[in-house]
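job 3f2a | input accepted
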Amino acid sequence: HGDRRVVVVNATLAERFWPGQSALGKRLRFANPDRPGWYEVVAVVGDVRWMMVPLTYGFIARVLTGPTLSPLGQFATRVAAPRLSSWRREVPGPPKRFAQGIGAVLTIATSVVWLSAGWSVARWILVPLIGAASLEGFFGYCVGCAIFGQLMRFGVVPPSICAECGDLRKRYAAAGFAVTDES
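job 3f2a | predicted structure (183 res):
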């Protein structure tokens, strides 16, 4: 049916409106006039607030020690990266730590706002983090690393912090690109 309207709800909403029942197939209507009519519940997703604890810990751990104390960091370096060697692109430590620092700031801010103002406000702080993680995961583009590079370019981050970052020819050659002496 082309006019069938569907919606995915979280477990909290499902339990609030249909306690002790399955929400699948139930119908609901939004109070928003831009979304008129009835919508059929086609899926119920679990609440993800609890993930803030390991996510925040993971970012802080990776900032402080790299992947050493982070379970996700260990998985990424020991399990995932070796299996994705054709996609693997080595990035020096300082830009990655900077990117992890941005993640730590966003997850700490989300946790503080969640505890003080509620999840409905806090979840929006995660939008840039989800966007950056998606760019990294799907396209190999590290937003934090790019920001770090710009900060180096403008002299905010001194070259001594990451000598390897400044030698682009060496990095491109190591990644398998042909590097010539022409400017």
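job 3f2a | The chain has a mean pLDDT of 83.
job 3f2a | closed
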